[in-house]
């Protein structure tokens, strides 16, 4: 963890001076009245590779133009790849709650997992430490810890249905409602006139491809990936999550 804090401290140092982005004549009058950009989201991914070394080759290859700020190996080893205040290329053309350029507003974390296996305990232990550090330093809201599959339904499915979202939510990273308890204690079933699309959009999802969005919602909160219309229980679960987001 000390390594995380050391690297993060270096990344948070404000820069001074004006780089020459243009060939036009310009008079430089540097101002000290600025601070670092503050990430407001964390996007979690799985690598779809079988080893961390395979993923590192991909994430650092200059011609592939894909990157993340961090990679965590199955053994819990933490790799720091891109300055936290720089724009890594991990989120693609995503959307969440009105934000479209999520690369510019987020920290991307890759997890060494092929997508068809449980997530290793040492990896999750390190992830929880890293998320705690990021949330503390950048004051990231609990609702803004997201899956890659949340922000690009249909095109991305990571991290997979094996990811322990409930465990993260218990530590304040992401939202959670217990499906079995929702109808009795948490939220009423929304009226039939309130569509699945309206509910999913209220939570933050892009609903242009509603079947894919239903699948993304179920993957995240029910470890399921079917795309059929939401049941009453699922709609109540979604209503509960919307209420939690507004707290």
In brief, what are we looking at here?
The protein is of the alpha/beta class and 247 residues long. It has helices spanning 2-11, 52-60, 121-138, 148-151, 165-169, 182-186, 196-203, 210-222, 232-246, and strands spanning 41-46, 70-72, 78-80, 106-111, 145-147.
Q: What integer value in Å does the Rg equal?
A: 19 Å
CATH class category of the largest domain? Alpha Beta
Oligomeric status of the shown chains? single chain
Task: Report the count of strand segments.
Answer: 5
Strand order of the largest sheet: 3-2-4-1-5
For this structure, the CATH topology of the largest domain is Lysozyme-like
Span of the ends, CA to CA: 31 Å
Give me the CATH architecture of the largest domain, please: 3-Layer(aba) Sandwich
Q: Which consecutive residue ranges, at least 5 long each, have pLDDT under 50? A: 1-18
Shape, principal axes of CA atoms: globular
Helix content: 25-40%
Element-by-element helix/strand order: HEHEEEHEHHHHHH
The CATH homologous superfamily of the largest domain is termed Peptidoglycan recognition protein-like
Instruction: Tell me the fraction of residues in β-strands, as a range.
Output: 5-15%
Largest β-sheet summary: 5 strands, mixed
Give me the number of helical elements: 9
Count of separate structural domains: 2
Q: Please, what is the average pLDDT?
A: 88
Q: Which structural class do you get from the secondary structure elements?
A: alpha/beta
Provide a descriptive summary of the structure in words.
- This protein has a five-stranded mixed β-sheet with strand order 3-2-4-1-5, sandwiched between helices.
- Helix 7 packs parallel to helix 9 (232-246).
- The protein is built from nine helices and five strands.
- The protein has helices at residues 2-11, 52-60, 121-138, 148-151, 165-169, 182-186, 196-203, 210-222, 232-246, and strands at 41-46, 70-72, 78-80, 106-111, 145-147.
- Helices cover 35% and strands 9% of the residues.
- The protein is an alpha/beta fold and 247 residues long.
- The chain folds into two domains: 36-175, Lysozyme-like (3-Layer(aba) Sandwich), CATH 3.40.80.10; 177-247, Orthogonal Bundle (Muramoyl-pentapeptide Carboxypeptidase, domain 1), CATH 1.10.101.
């Amino acid at each position: 963890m000390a390594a995380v804090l050391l690297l993060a401290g270096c990344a948070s140092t404000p820069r001074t001076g004006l780089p020459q982005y243009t060939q036009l004549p310009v008079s430089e009058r540097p101002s000290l009245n600025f601070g670092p950009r503050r990430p407001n989201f964390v996007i979690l991914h799985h690598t779809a590779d079988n080893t961390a070394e395979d993923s590192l080759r991909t994430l650092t290859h200059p011609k592939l133009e894909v990157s993340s700020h961090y990679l965590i190996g199955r053994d819990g080893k933490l790799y720091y790849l891109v300055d936290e205040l720089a724009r890594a290329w991990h989120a693609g053309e995503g959307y969440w709650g009105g934000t479209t350029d999520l690369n510019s507003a987020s920290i991307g974390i890759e997890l060494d997992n092929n997508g068809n296996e449980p997530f290793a305990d040492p990896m999750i232990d390190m992830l929880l430490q890293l998320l705690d550090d990021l949330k503390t330093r950048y004051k990231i809201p609990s609702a803004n810890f997201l899956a890659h599959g949340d922000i690009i339904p249909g095109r991305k499915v990571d991290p997979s249905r094996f990811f322990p979202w409930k465990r993260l939510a218990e530590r304040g990273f992401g939202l959670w409602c217990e499906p079995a308890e929702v109808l009795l204690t948490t939220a009423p079933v929304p009226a039939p006139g309130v569509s699945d699309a309206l509910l999913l959009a209220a939570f933050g999802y892009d609903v242009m491809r509603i079947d894919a969005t239903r699948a993304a919602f179920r993957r995240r909160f029910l470890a399921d990936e079917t795309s059929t219309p939401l049941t009453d229980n699922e709609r109540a679960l979604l209503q509960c999550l919307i209420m939690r987001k507004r707290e």
